[in-house]
C-alpha cells in the first residue's frame, strides 16, 4: 500500500514562519492551497495531515466524510504572550488506515510527545510523533510512505526504523503511559 504524510506550513503561518526556508511558503496562507493538498492526498491508499488547532474548523469541512481526527498532545509546549490557555496539542486528520484484527496491538488516536527544539525548521516533529503516524496508518514493512514535506527528514528515519524492526518485539521508542 502507498501512504502519505503532509506537514505543510500551517494555515496563515507560511509567510510568517517559513519565508526564509522556501520562497513559495506564502501559498500556504490560503485555504485553496490546503484544499488542493487534500485532493492530492486522496490519491493515496491512506494519509495523515498535521494542522494547527485554530485551523481545524476551516480545514476539516474540506475533507472527505470518513476522515478521523487524532491528537498530538505536547507536555512541553511553547508559551505565547497573550495566548492563555496555551495551545498544547495539534490535530492530525487521517484517512484510509489499514484495517487491523482484534489480535493486533491497539493504537490510540493520540500521542503524547514533547516538541523538538533547534532543528533548524519551525514545526519540526519529534521521532515519537512520526512513529505514531506510521502506527496510526498501519504502515507495514512492504508499504511506501511518501512524506510530502520532508523538512528535517525525521519521517524517513521513522519509516526506516519500521522496516528494520517488528513493533511487537522491539518498540521503536520508550513506552510511556498513553503511547502504544
Note down, in words, how this protein is organized:
The protein has one domain (2-164): 3-Layer(aba) Sandwich (Rossmann fold). Helix 4 crosses helix 5. It is an alpha/beta fold and 180 residues long. 23% of the residues lie in helices and 17% in strands. It is globular, with a radius of gyration of 16 Å. The protein contains five helices and six strands; from the N terminus they run βααβαβββαβα.
Relevant terms:
single chain; 180 residues; alpha/beta; Rossmann fold; six-stranded mixed β-sheet; globular; disordered C terminus
List the SSEs and their pairings.
Blueprint: E1 2-6, H1 14-18, H2 31-41, E2 46-50, H3 56-59, E3 68-73, E4 89-95, E5 110-112, H4 127-137, E6 144-147, H5 154-164
Parallel strand pairs: 1-2, 1-6, 3-5
Antiparallel strand pairs: 2-4, 3-4
Helix pairs in contact: 4-5
Amino acid at each position: 500500500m502507498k501512504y502519505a504524510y503532509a506537514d505543510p506550513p500551517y494555515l496563515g503561518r507560511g509567510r510568517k514562519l517559513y519565508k526564509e526556508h522556501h520562497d513559495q511558503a506564502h501559498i500556504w496562507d490560503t485555504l485553496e492551497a490546503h484544499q488542493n493538498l487534500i485532493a492530492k492526498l486522496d490519491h493515496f491508499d491512506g494519509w495523515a495531515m498535521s494542522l494547527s488547532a485554530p485551523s481545524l474548523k476551516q480545514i476539516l469541512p474540506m475533507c472527505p466524510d470518513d476522515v478521523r481526527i487524532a491528537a498530538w498532545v505536547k507536555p512541553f509546549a511553547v508559551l505565547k504572550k497573550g495566548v492563555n490557555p496555551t495551545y498544547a496539542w495539534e490535530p492530525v486528520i487521517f484517512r484510509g488506515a489499514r484495517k487491523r484484527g482484534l489480535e493486533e496491538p491497539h493504537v490510540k488516536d493520540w500521542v503524547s510527545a514533547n516538541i523538538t527544539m533547534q532543528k533548524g525548521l519551525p514545526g519540526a516533529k519529534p521521532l515519537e510523533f512520526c512513529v505514531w503516524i506510521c502506527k496510526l496508518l498501519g504502515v507495514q514493512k512492504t508499504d511506501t510512505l511518501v512524506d510530502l514535506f520532508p523538512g528535517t527528514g525525521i519521517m524517513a528515519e521513522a519509516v526506516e526504523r519500521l522496516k528494520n524492526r517488528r513493533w511487537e518485539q522491539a518498540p521503536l521508542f520508550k513506552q510511556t503511559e498513553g503511547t502504544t
